Amino acid sequence: QVDAVRVYVNSSSENLQYPVLFVVRQQKGVLSWQVPLIFRGLYQRTYNYQEVSRTLCPSEPTPEAGPSDQIIFVDVASMAPFNIAYELLVTRLENFQLETNKAFNFTASPSQPQYFLYKFPQDVDSVIIKVASDVVYPCSVVSVQDIVCPVYDLDHNVEFNGVYQSMTKQAAITVQRKDFPGEQFFVVFVIKPEDYACGGSVPSSIHGNVNRTWNLQRTKNLQVMIVPSIKKSVYVQAMFFSFLSFLSFYLGSVVVAFVHYIRVRRKALAGRLSPEDGSGIMTSSHPITASTPEGSSYGAIDESSSSGGRQLSSPERGLPAGSDTDSSVEEESDFDTMPEIESDKNVIRTKVFLYLSDLSRKDRRIVSKKYKIYFWNIITIAVFYALPVIQLVITYQTVVNVTGNQDICYYNFLCAHPLGVLSAFNNILSNVGHMLLGFLFLLIVLRRDILHRRAMEMKDVYTLDYGIPKHFGLFYAMGIALMMEGVLSACYHVCPNYSNFQFDTSFMYMIAGLCMLKLYQTRHPDINASAYSAYASFAVVICLAVLGVVFGKNDVWFWVIFSMIHVLASLALSTQIYYMGRFKIGKCYLGIFRRAAMVLYTDCIQQCSRPMYMDRMVLLIVGNLVNWSFAIFGLVYRPRDFASYILGIFICNLLLYLAFYIIMKLRSSEKLLPIPLFCIVATAVVWAAALYFFFQTLSSWEETPAESREKNRPCILLGFFDDHDVWHFLSAAALFFSFLVLLTLDDDLDAVRRDKIPVF
C-alpha cells in the first residue's frame, strides 16, 4: 500500500499584489503554489481561488531500506508589509490506490485537483478507466500519467505529460500494461476554470478582465472505476468472425453458380434431344425470323427499318473472336457507325415510343470499349486519392500517440480496442466487408463477362439481337468503388474528426453516381455519359464537399450559391434526360434554360397540351421537387454535416430512379426473376437494419470532444464491435445486394428482341 499526503491551505487575503507563497520540499521533488491561486481563461480573464489543496507526490519505500518515516518541509512566505492569516492542514490519504472493478467517488475543483494510483493486477494486460458524473459542468480533464514527480495536476500543465481527454458527464481511457514499464500509473482529475473547451460558454457574470474569488462555485462530484479490457483471444475471435461472415457470401455465390451451371447443362441436353431441331438451339421457343407484329411501328420511322437488331447484326456476327477487347478498335467519336439512311438521331430519339433497338445502334465494340474506361479511370483515381489519405491519417494517429491528446479523434471510447499504433482497431476491422464483397462482386461480373464472350465467340444470335446489351465496364467500376469505400472508411476511422470525414463519403458519392449511370445505361447504352464527363462531375461534387466543410458552417453566401447551382444543375440535367440528349442548347449554355422556359410556356401554359413523354415527365417533376426541397432545406437550416447532406441528395435520387425503373418495368409486363426478386427483398431488409444501427449515434464531431463522449456506448457484438461496426457490416452487405439487383434486374429480357424492349 502506497501512502500519500495531501496539503490544504487557506488564506483570507485577496490581495494579488502580496500573495502567500507555499513551497513543499520532499526527498525527490519540490511543489509550490501561491494563494490566492490564479487561473487564466479566455481573453485573459482571471479566476482567483483562496482555498488550495494539493496531493504530494508519493514516494514508495524501497525493498532494501524498508518502511521509514518521510520528512516533508513546508515553507510559507509573503512579501506583504502587513500580517496575513492563513490555515495549513496536512492529512494522510486513506484511499489513494484505486482497485479493479471497484467504484470510487470523490470531489474536485480547479484549485483542488485529485489524482490516484493504480497498479496492474498480474493477469490483466489492459484496463479501461471509466469516469462518470451526474452533471455536465464544470468542464474537467482526465489524464493518465506515468509515475514521475512532479505530477501535472493544474489546468495550465495537465497536458504536458501522459494521455488526456476532456469530459462533461463521462470519459473512458484504455490503458495497456506495455505502455508503463513500472506496471502502474497515476489517474489525474483536473477541473477547468471555464467550460468553453467542453462546449459551454463563459460565465455571464464575468465581464472583461475582472478578478473574482471562486472557491465553491466550481466543484464537481466524480466517480472512477477501472475495469479490465478484453483479452487477446477476443481479438482473434473478432477477426475470424469478420472474415468468415463475408466468406460465407463467397460460398453462397459458388452454390448459386453451380446450380445455374447444372440448369444450363440440363437445358443444353434437352435441346440436343429435341425432335424439332437437332442443332441444339431451341428455335421454337425463340422465333428469330418472326415478322414484326402489326401496330409495333411508332413515330416517323418504321420499326422494321429502325430495328438495330436486324440492321446491325450482320457486321457484328462477322466479328472475329475476342474482337470486343481488341486495343486497336476505333475510339468513340462524335459520329455514329450506322447506315446513312438512319443517321438522323433527332428523328429516332425523339419518337414518342422508343425501344432498346433505337438506342443500341452503335458498334458494340466501340460502346464496350467506351464503358471499360470507367473501370480503368476509377483505378487511377483510387490510387491517387487513397495514397495521400493514408499518409494523412497515419500522421493524425502519430500526433495522437505522441502528444497524448485524445480530443483530436472522435472515437467511441467505451468500445475502442487498440492494436499496435491504432487506437480503435475494431472500427477499422469492421470495414473488411466492403473490400471482400467488392472483390466478390468483381468475380461475379467477371464470370458473366466470360460467359458473354464465349457466347459471342460461338456466334450465339441471342447475344446479338436479344436482351439488354452486355457492357460490364460500369459494373467493374462499381466493384472497385465498393472496395475503395472500405479502404477509405477504414482510413477515416483511424482518426475520425471533422477535417477528414470527406474521406469516408467521397466514394459513396461515386457509388451512388455509378449506380444511377448504370441504371440509365441499361436502356440507353448509346447516349449514356462518358467516363470522362462522369468522373469530372464527381470531381466537382467532391470540390463542393470540401468547400462545404470549410465555408458551410455559418456562411450564408455559400449556401445561396450552392442552392442555385443545385437547382440549375437539376433543371439542365432534367432537360437533357427528357429529350434524350438531343436538346439543342445553341451557342450559349444559357440557351438551354431559355429553351426549357419556352417549351414550358408553349406546352404547359399556352396550350395546356399533354407532355410528349409522360412517363419521363412524371419522373423528372418528382425528381426536381425532391432536389428543390433539398436546396431549400440546406438554405434554411444550413446543416453542419455538409458531406452527409450531399450524400443524402445522391441517395434520394438513386432510390427515386430505381423505384421508377422497377415500376415501369412491371408496368411494361416484364417479370422479376427469383434471383433479382430475392436481391431486392434482401437489399430492403439489410438496408433497414443497417440504417437502424447507423442512427445509433456513438460520437459526433459536430460537437466538442467532451460532448461527443456523452454519446459513447459499450460494445454490443462479441464484446469487440459497437453499433457503428455493425453498421459497417450490414451496409457492406446491403451495397453488395444493391449491386446484384442492378446486375440481375433485367435477366428476364435475355430472350426478348431489343425492338420489343421499351425505353423509359
What does this structure look like?
The protein is α+β, with helices and mostly antiparallel strands and 760 residues long. Among the domains are: 4-200 and 215-229, Sandwich (Jelly Rolls); 364-541 and 671-759, no CATH class. It is built from 19 helices and 16 strands. The model is unreliable at 205-210, 274-343 and 583-588 (pLDDT under 50). One of its GO terms (molecular function) is RNA transmembrane transporter activity.
Strand content: 5-15%
* Outline type: elongated
Strand line-up in the sheet with most strands = 9-16-11-14
Portion of residues within helices:
40-55%
What is the terminal separation in angstroms? Answer: 80 Å
Q: What is the assembly state of the chains in this entry?
A: single chain
Q: Report the major sheet.
A: 4 strands, antiparallel
Taking all residues together, what is the mean pLDDT?
81
Computed CA radius of gyration, to the nearest angstrom: 35 Å
Count of helix runs: 19
Number of strands: 16
Structural class by secondary-structure content: alpha+beta
Uncertain regions: pLDDT < 50 for 5+ in a row?
205-210, 274-343, 583-588
